[in-house]
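Researcher: I'd like a structural prediction for the single chain below. Treat it as a standalone chain; there are no partners to consider.
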Amino acid sequence: MDLLADIARAEFTHTSTYANTATCGILPRGAAAAVRELIDAAGAGAPAGFGDFARVEHVRERFARLVSVAPARVAVGSAVATHVGLIAASLPAGAEVLCPEGEFASVINPFVVRGDLKVRFAPLEALAEAVGPATALVAVSAVQSADGRAVDLAAVRAAASSAGARMLVDATQAAGWLPFDATPYDYTVTAGYKWLLALRGVSFLTVSEEAQEHLVPLHAGWVAAESMWDATYGPMRQLAHDARRFDESPAFVAYHAAEFSLGLLERAGIDAVHAHDTALAARYRAGLARLGLDPVPGTAPIVSVPGLAHRQPALAAAGVHTAARAGSLRASFHLYNTEADVDRLLDALT
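Model: Treating it as a single chain, here is the predicted structure.
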């Protein structure tokens, strides 16, 4: 834990009590420096201001290690909804997509707006049991954005496999604090600006080798080619042989920042981050119980208290940053938080 404390002191300069990573993570000092370096070079008209594809590849490799897959299974992009839209477009008309009730909008809307898919909803706790013989795809977040509830991914995966259905997991509220293995799933999507400490404009799509053969790269640009620099004009000769065929052209400012941020998480170690974050959440839950408040049960570092959303503006005015989500007050703790942050939040609620 001393390493985490050293990293927090060196890389994070915020002065408020920030318990809102589930909305947006704090950018480390080194990542901010990488952004400034790129912007200064761009303003000076220097070649370094064009952006560096090598850094994008470093980010791909670091994310692949983080979720325990080969880099060949990782596509880079800008937003979760874009990745999900690609998956939605691959389904035949009439296909059934099963989602949890109250799931994050980016996970479900690309299926809903098609209009010719059957999108069915079930309670999160009963999602595995709701998989049926007609289910083509199950789409679910590993950890729910609204309240931190975690789905039994193994049970859902077993049910989907038995039904011959594919599975899409949104790891946005998990990757970065929870040891997460993307290997068993056909698809995973992850936004980079929360627990991965990057900026908006960074997102990841993992695609199993088998699923790569069934997903059409509808937004393929020159970066999706096997030989990228030979595909800048005219139809490309050959798509990339792996998940890079699903790449979007990268937002370099965001990816230059992400290279540092993902390296920082690697140095910290996800197991250590997990222990730190969940210990703070447990401290907060215990404090809420002493105040007679009942948070949504769970162990994630996302803790929501139903009916308390109205307290969020006053807390923010006092320099304690949380979020109001689905009628609840949501607090979320990451590696830059301390026990003093938890106690200050509890004091503000008293």
